[in-house]
Amino acid sequence: MFPIIHWNLISLELLITVTLVGLIVLDILLPPETGKDWTGLISFTALLIMIGFWSTQRNLSGETMGGMFIMDSLAWFFKGFFLLAMVFVFPMTRQFLKSLPKWRNEFYFLLWLALLGMCLVASSGDFLMLFISIEILTISLYVMTAYLKSDHHSLEAGMKYLILGALASGFLLYGISFLYGVTHSTGFAVIQGYAATHAMNPTILFGLVLIFAAIGFKIASVPFHLWVPDVYQGAPTPVTALLSVGSKAAGFVILIRLFFGVFASWHPQWSSVFAPLAALTMCYGNLGALFQTNIKRLFGYSSIGHAGYLLMGAAAGSILGASAINFYLLGYLFTNLAAFLVIVLFFVTNKSDEINDYAGLATRSPLLAGVLLLALVSLAGVPPLVGFFGKFTLLMATVQSGLLWLALIAAVNVIISLYYYLIVVKRLYVDPPRVNSPIPISSSMRFILWMAVAGIVGIGIIQGPFLEAAMTAAKGMCFLP
Amino acid sequence: MTVPHILSWILLSPLAALSIIFWMPSNNVPLIRRIANIGVGLPFLLSLWVFFNYDYTSGGFQFEEQIPWVVPLGISYHLGIDGINGVMILLLGFGSFAGVLVSQNIQERVKRYYILLLLIVIGTYGAFLSVDIFFFYFFHEVAAIPTFLLIALWGSDRREYAAMKLTLYLTAGATLALVGLLSLYHAVGLESFDLIQIQKYLVGHPLPVEVQHWIFPLIVVGFGVTLTLWPFYTWAPVGYACAPTAVSMLHAGVLKKLGAYAILRFAVQLMPDAAETWMPIVATLAVFNILYCGLIALIQRDLKYILGYSSCSHMGYILLGLACLNVIGLNGVVFLMFAHGIMACLGFALTGFLAEQTQTRHLDELGGLLKRLPFIGTCFAMMALASAGVPGFGNFVAEIMVLLGAWDHYRWQTVAAVLGIVFTAVYMLKAIRLGFQGPIQPRWTQLTDVQTFSEKLPYIVLLTALIAAGCFPSLILKRIESGTKPNFKNTLNEVSFAKQEPNKADRPMSMASIR
Predict the structure, then answer these.
(1) What is the pLDDT of residues B294-336, one digit of tens each?
(2) Is residue A3 part of a domain?
(3) Domains in chain A, number
(4) In terms of residue numbers, what domain contains B94?
(5) Is residue B1 one of the residues assigned to a domain?
(6) Best mutation target, A391, A401, A415, to test chain B (most B CBs within 10 A)
(7) Which residues of chain A have a CB within 8 Å of the CB of B164?
């Protein structure tokens, strides 16, 4: 018997799929040289429509396809998150593709595919579904990472990401098989029932460690972080942006669902693992970033550092911790994507990602320098910007759970990160420019930049509604004990 | 007469000025300056009004405004004035007003300069006005990055080094304090950052002593960095020396006092048991502050470094006063924060003027300047005398109160602190002798003194405040006491020191009534 499918639950994913197929058909039908980036324009319009559609799904919840696909407040929050990330990634891609001779439209297809994968990850209710959606996301990222076929950095990055990513997928499958062996199911609901009634045993532990390895790869946590700096540096910048925000958030939505929900009854065990991992991850990332000369590589290490801060919320293991992760990611989205927008716009005119070439950006383009300044300072966690309140809530959750030592390590890391962010700020504002030519920015890009600034400053000052949204997402999650 | 939301107006008027300047073309310099002056002058007048209209007979927080901000965490936008921060915003009013006035000589990137300076002013007003602990911290940290940019862009000699060092030190201290404040929040368990609520709650449910014991040092050391607690003071002299004049004034005069204010509000008032255990250590560190930094100041030849180390040395008196844990000592602390703040603003303003005119701050290259600069020289001499604790200036009143408060519990520390006053007299008089007296060097014969009233205004304003505080201390003391005294009854339950010698607790009243 075929299970009943609740189409309204999966309508967003269907819409994405239809758009993707439609774009491919359109690409075949349209003449190759139209002179206008139709795919990009249609993509962006479709995205805005989808955001409107998404906002109507607020109270949607339930499961379908025999529990394979679930829709709850957490999934809703993160789907909105991924759509919002795309609002920044698409314009970034448009800028970036200008330097590409051909194969432009295919890049958009891959972005849509990645979006589909991320949305499915947020809605997975079964380990097999989870595996498939992660693969949809990761495979499109492999291709995009190696997209610049003439650039050996990009190829190296793609190769590195592919090999380590494949390894992580293997770990995930292997881990799932252990869980299946013990619980005789891949469904989250059944496994949660098992976890609630049984103590942790070595077989389960082994499976969980392997599953965490796959998640750790996605969120760039130590010791699964080795790919990050090279891939961030080599990949096309929009892909780096997507990796740092979308892919990381996809990792965290699984982490929240599994470790705050499904495995919540084993909280003491995994909390004692997450706390040292968080400390190691933030120390590694922030110390590694100290002496970088390439801005994308710097952001690679800083991204590891932020994964460490976020893991503090996981170590706290409370609802406040999960809400803090959600809020922090939301702030991180605006902040990091603002920075990558600047990096793309700078690259288009200067063909360089070296931090030294950013010298005197404040005189060449006050807007770009200002946005990058806000982004860096927000990442460092300085009020009134959103990064501050994110760190504040994470620290609050950590202290609440009695992990004072972890909070103190985080405090030290904030200072280390402030140092290397301020070094870049110094380049932007204090050092004299090497060339004096201004950097042209189109008015549409100005609008996107201002939108990012509005997010960084606005959420930083009016935190209440956004924190409440993050809390609602965490509290209304399926499988919450 | 009541003005609705007067505290919000204090906070919003510099913000309004900032937003106007932000959207203005950067070449309209005179208008930018005028708007910045208004944006800082208006809150100055408002804070004067608030200061004089504060009803010190009834005490407590007045002019309160409250808007719930982040409900799930118990954060609210809550402003209020009591006897302590009423004096502090007055200090900030004086300091920021004078600071913006002496910024007239900034010629490059004027728009950016005023935006950053206004950000510092907003942050500091916000921190002093906030009754909510979250917003105190929030506003306190707003000043960090503008300070970095102001020093790195408009500073002098080792400006990049100084900017980085200052920002990192201050943020490190603040983050440490944040961990302490969050621990306090969870330890209280009220799910609220509202200081008034926490205070009321703690009266009936004091924190367990062992919890107080480890939260207290986090807060004191964390905010102690801001207050240049020995040995975390090294950022200050170099930071002040390399910063542009207005930033040195604001930091040495006002922002530093935020540290003392936070220790007083969050550590001493909320955790009285831990205070009794830890404060003797703080008193000893205070002596290191006074003597160690005083000795370094003795051998400096650079005017700004003398003032910088002198400022670190004088923070020792504030720490010593905090350590007394009695009303007279705390009154002295708040008074000293005011008097020293005004004095430091004046000192850095004068030094900034000199450095601008002569392109040097080195005492060996100056000399005989009083002949060419009678106004500046006179102001400098008065500042130096105030710093050395000569009666007639606010510092004398404050320091004598601190010393009186400290004598009962910290004998040898008090003796050492008195020695520090001698050091101050020595290096300040040396600065006057080498810089302003003696034969004038030929290359300084072309110097011109401040001419117009508007140029003299910042110095006049600050000197007036300093002398008024010295001659009519009760004006300020009555208000301070209305802020410090009730807290002793509520949260400190009469402090053990006061308990042993109950007659001592009455002394501050008499101090205030004598004057």
Answers:
(1) 999 999 989 999 999 999 999 999 999 999 888 889 999 999 9
(2) no
(3) 1
(4) 6-514
(5) no
(6) A415
(7) 419, 422, 426
